[in-house]
Task: inverse folding
């Protein structure tokens, strides 16, 4: 074996179980990998001492036969998950130096299952962004930058908001990572970085301890090398949490069972509204290839309609900004985070928030404040919630005809830092295929299926019924097997 | 609809974000663009559609009335920018 | 009608006061509305604060079932409609003691809808006051402004404690009615055990909306007086504010709708600078919570297990004990008093018991500023005294003397009467003998009486009582004297 870093999470677990190497060896290799990859700026904080301590404990458990489902797996944690006594910034200046005195439910479940934390991963500030260029801790570089020798100097974005997670998994400085997805923040960076990411059903993973962006849309999920790894990670991350009132009390299935099952007879819906204006032909081609692969694997292809798709983005930007304007009111410099002094309390608030929040966060807070304000509530917020219902109903109708839906993940491959930055709406259009899923609360996964003309990864998205992550993973496994995507980014550890 | 600088200033005040004149002007222009884009929603007929506030099809869970939390003032104050005698400290509030 | 006497006399004629109240009542519960931190009063700063109450990043609310139950129970207590579907909204505003920058409250869909409560006026009439709604919401923390000249200190112990906001219709017409309304509400909450009603600990606070108008005219602009924390202050605040408004209007000014503060020390209201700016709370449904759906059977069970409410008890006292509405109202105002009264009255004469409780007992307790639960004379002991009156062992006058002794020593009435030989003399022969002696000693007065000086009757009674050491049965003495003097 050339390097432990080449192993998927499933393979590494196997290696530890069969004592081919130790968790400490694996973790040490990953700590070196994080150092080697610092140029990507994927990590905001590295926690090597903690990682080695956890690895040692894992080794002890492997030695005495009490190993857990994720024992010894070196993960990167998106810096939106609060981690006990480890700086948690949400990519924002306003939380610089903040050390939570508590552990998020999702990360505590990962640690319960033996996972090792390598550090906290960079992200768009408060998860608001599609390119990881809004972080107060600098841009994350897509390890696929330079894949095309013609454009070798183009520094590409990894997608966002879970850009650090996508870059770290892609460049092999984490065996897997956690992400969160409010409008595509797991799936779009997964597509841009050539990895797999699944956003579970809303209510599947606890939101407790995850810095909130838009409460009715936020959902945590795994970002991994392949579908099998996603299934393993999701099993540990998912589950009912009495501390989250929107958490749903349903048993968590063994998702690995699902990926063995095959997809013969499953009906896959193809929504005609996802052929948007100006979408590159290569995206359409990839989609058609995906359809063919699933057909060949025994699935039945069904044309479906999701008529309100074109309104999803505008709806999202009403709902998400309204919620964020309220969720981010707590960052006031009183109890935690950075304070900017002022002559009186109000000035302190205004100075703290002006300095602490970046431009995109300020823009969304302002927009959300506006759509909720007196005189505009009905025209914007209420209208948005009604259209949201139309979008959710579209999916409900569609799932009468099909078991899952196949679409492209993003309307393009990874773009360069600096592009699409002249107009906020242009940037937001990146999420056109991912946003409807969050509005409807459905599970959806992106996985790499091919390369663009720029030799960059392209992903397809599989959308499932509520709480039917198993079918999504099953279809993903079939598509993955057929696509055989084995490309590696030009830069990796 | 036109969004002027005064509207932006009012919203910035509600959101407690200090903006310079220049920022107010820029944001007014941005808002103009964003809101005219958002206005496409007016095309959708939502006459008999109730607003969707949550996609979760469960009812609000109720917890038992037991004291299970608190009692860790040090942890509550651990990240405070300014504290004294067990209190958070802020510039004088005038009533 | 009583509206007339409540009018304010102004230079330009009479003015009517219109008052609506928003009462914030702290729900009796062990833990907070959306967190498991304790609610007890008087802890060290920030000791009863969870990460949720401090609005730390990523924290989420989970609702307390008991608080919901208490709100429903209170809803029944104010004869209101219980909404099986209600929604929690966020009320967004910045304030130092509001950690999340929003208060979780109920805006469009409160848990309790319209209701009403009855006020017993001292003149014996009843006033019905409409309740608009009751909703659940979180309390804020506490800012201390007097610790440091340049800074305020924030304690979040109260942050997240459950409150019921009970909103009345603008049906109140005088300071007195406002005071009675608050008192009645407190009585109901205490009966139900849903709020302890301790205003000095802040468990009950009132926001009072006051406006004035020409009788029958359109409503005037109202001012809201925030956080008035005693019955007396509510009455003072209404009185002051109404007069202030009349003076402004009659001086050619207009009333500005604003939030005002009541200065307890000066007895005045003044404008609150911090609340001056226009509010835009941007209410929207809290996405961290789901609609609250109540199970019909659960609600029915709460109704079935309600304690007897003060108005029901009052009507029972009127019917069963023959009390006046006013007396019954006084006795039921405090649950402890009502329980005491019933014990003392049971199997005896209600009217007599009521007089003793409201007369001698209240008098003695008030002198020492004691509550009925601290009374040195138990209900049973008072009952023992009433028994001695009812079976003619002692007179009412002697009973007062015995009561004083009971209050001071804690001894039983019978023991005191026995010890001091206070049993009244009802032996006709003995009394006739005493009367004969008195008449024989005062032949001139007997003659005067018989000549028409009726007032001398009292003199004879006094003499007989004196001779018998005050123990003679007074009504028997009256009867016998009348016969002898007539004859």
Result:
């Amino acid at each position: 074996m050339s390097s432990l870093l080449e192993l998927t999470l499933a393979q590494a677990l196997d290696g530890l179980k069969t004592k081919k190497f130790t968790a400490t060896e694996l973790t040490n290799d990953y700590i070196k990998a994080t150092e080697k990859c610092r140029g990507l700026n994927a990590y905001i904080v590295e926690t090597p001492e903690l990682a080695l301590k956890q690895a040692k404990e894992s080794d002890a458990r492997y030695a005495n036969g009490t190993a857990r489902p994720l024992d010894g797996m070196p993960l990167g944690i998106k810096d939106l998950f609060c981690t006990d006594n480890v700086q948690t910034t949400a990519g924002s200046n306003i939380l610089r130096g903040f050390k939570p005195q508590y552990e998020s439910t999702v990360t505590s479940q990962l640690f319960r299952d033996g996972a090792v934390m390598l550090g906290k991963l960079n992200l768009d500030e408060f998860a608001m962004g599609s390119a990881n260029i809004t972080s107060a801790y600098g841009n994350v570089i897509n390890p696929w930058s330079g894949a095309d020798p013609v454009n070798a100097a183009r520094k590409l974005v990894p997608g966002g908001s879970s850009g650090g997670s996508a870059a770290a998994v892609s460049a092999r400085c984490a065996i897997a990572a956690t992400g969160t997805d409010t409008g595509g923040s797991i799936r779009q960076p997964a597509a841009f970085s050539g990895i797999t990411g699944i956003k579970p059903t809303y209510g599947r993973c606890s939101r407790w301890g995850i810095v909130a962006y838009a409460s009715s849309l936020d959902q945590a999920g795994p970002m991994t090398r392949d579908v099998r790894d996603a299934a393993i990670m999701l099993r540990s991350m998912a589950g009912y949490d009495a501390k989250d009132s929107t958490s749903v009390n349903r048993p968590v299935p063994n998702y690995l069972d699902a990926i063995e099952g095959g997809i013969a007879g499953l009906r896959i819906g193809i929504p005609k509204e996802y052929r948007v204006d100006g979408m590159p032909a290569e995206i359409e081609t990839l989609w058609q290839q995906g359809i063919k692969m699933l057909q060949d694997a025994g699935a039945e292809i069904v044309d479906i309609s999701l008529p309100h798709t074109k309104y999803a983005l505008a709806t999202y930007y009403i709902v998400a900004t309204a919620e964020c304007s309220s969720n981010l009111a707590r960052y006031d410099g009183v109890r935690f985070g950075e304070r900017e002094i002022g002559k009186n309390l109000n000035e302190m608030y205004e100075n703290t928030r002006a300095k602490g929040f970046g431009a995109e966060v300020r823009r969304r807070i302002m927009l959300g404040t506006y759509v909720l304000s007196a005189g505009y509530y009905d025209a914007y917020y209420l209208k948005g919630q009604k259209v949201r219902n139309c979008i959710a109903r579209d999916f409900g109708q569609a799932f009468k005809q099909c078991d899952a839906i196949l679409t492209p993940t993003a309307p393009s491959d990874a773009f360069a830092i600096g592009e699409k930055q002249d107009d906020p709406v242009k940037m937001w259009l990146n999420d056109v295929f991912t946003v409807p899923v969050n509005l409807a609360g459905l599970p959806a996964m992106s996985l790499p299926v091919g390369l663009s003309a720029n030799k960059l990864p392209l992903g397809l998205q599989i959308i499932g019924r509520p709480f039917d992550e198993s079918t999504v993973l099953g279809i993903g496994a079939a598509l993955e097997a057929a696509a055989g995507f084995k490309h590696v980014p030009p830069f990796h550890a | 609809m036109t969004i002027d600088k005064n509207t932006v200033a009012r919203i910035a005040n509600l959101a407690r974000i200090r903006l310079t004149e220049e920022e107010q002007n820029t944001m007014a222009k941005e808002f103009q663009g964003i809101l005219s884009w958002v206005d496409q929603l007016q095309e959708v007929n939502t006459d008999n559609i109730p607003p969707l506030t949550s996609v979760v099809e469960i009812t609000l869970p109720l917890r038992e009335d037991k004291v299970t939390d608190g009692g860790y003032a040090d942890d509550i104050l651990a990240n405070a920018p300014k504290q004294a005698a067990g209190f958070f400290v802020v510039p004088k509030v005038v009533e | 009608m009583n509206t007339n006497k409540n009018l304010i006399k102004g230079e330009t004629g009479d003015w009517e006061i219109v008052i609506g109240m928003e009462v914030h009542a702290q729900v009796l519960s062990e833990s907070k509305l959306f967190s498991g931190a304790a609610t007890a009063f008087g802890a060290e700063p920030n000791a009863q604060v969870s990460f949720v109450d401090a609005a730390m990043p990523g924290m989420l609310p989970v609702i307390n079932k008991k608080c919901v139950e208490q709100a429903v129970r209170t809803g029944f207590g104010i004869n209101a409609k219980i909404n099986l579907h209600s929604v929690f909204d966020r009320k967004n505003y910045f304030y130092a003691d509001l950690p999340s920058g929003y208060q979780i409250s109920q805006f469009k869909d409160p848990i309790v809808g319209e209701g009403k409560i009855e006020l017993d006026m001292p003149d014996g009439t009843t006033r019905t006051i409409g309740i608009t709604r009751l909703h659940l919401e979180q309390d804020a923390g506490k800012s201390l402004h007097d610790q440091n000249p340049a800074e305020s200190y924030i304690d979040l112990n109260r942050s997240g404690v459950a409150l019921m906001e009970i909103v009345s219709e603008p049906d109140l017409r005088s300071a007195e009615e406002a005071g009675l309304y608050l008192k009645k509400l407190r009585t109901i909450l205490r009966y139900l055990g849903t709020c302890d009603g301790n205003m000095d600990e802040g468990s009950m606070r009132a926001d009072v909306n006051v406006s004035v108008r020409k009788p029958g005219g359109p409503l005037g602009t109202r001012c809201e007086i925030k956080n008035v924390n005693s019955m007396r202050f509510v009455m003072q605040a209404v009185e002051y504010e109404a007069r202030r408004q009349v003076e402004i209007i009659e001086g050619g000014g207009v009333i500005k709708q604003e939030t005002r503060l009541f200065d307890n020390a000066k007895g005045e209201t003044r404008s609150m600078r911090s609340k001056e700016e226009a509010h835009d709370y941007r209410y929207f449904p809290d996405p961290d919570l789901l609609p609250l759906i109540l199970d019909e059977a659960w609600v029915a069970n709460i109704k079935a297990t309600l304690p007897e409410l003060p108005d029901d008890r009052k009507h029972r006292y009127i019917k069963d004990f023959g009390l006046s509405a006013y007396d019954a109202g006084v006795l039921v105002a405090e649950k402890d008093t009502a329980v005491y009264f019933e014990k003392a009255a049971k199997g005896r004469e209600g009217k007599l018991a009521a007089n003793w409780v409201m007369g001698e007992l209240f008098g003695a307790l008030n002198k020492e500023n004691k509550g009925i639960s601290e009374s040195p004379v138990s209900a049973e002991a008072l009952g023992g005294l009433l028994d001695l009156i009812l079976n003619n062992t002692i007179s009412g006058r002697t009973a007062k003397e015995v009561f004083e002794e009971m209050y001071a020593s804690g001894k039983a009435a019978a023991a005191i009467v026995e010890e001091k030989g206070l049993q009244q003399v009802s032996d006709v022969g003995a009394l006739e003998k005493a009367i004969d002696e008195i008449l024989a000693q005062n032949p001139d007065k007997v003659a005067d009486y018989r000549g028409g000086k009726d007032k001398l009757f009292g003199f004879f009674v006094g003499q007989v009582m004196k001779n018998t050491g005050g123990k003679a049965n007074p009504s028997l003495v009256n009867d016998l004297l009348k016969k002898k003097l007539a004859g």
Q: What stands out?
A: Chain A is about 40% helix and 15% strand. Residues 377-398 of chain A form the longest helix (22 residues).
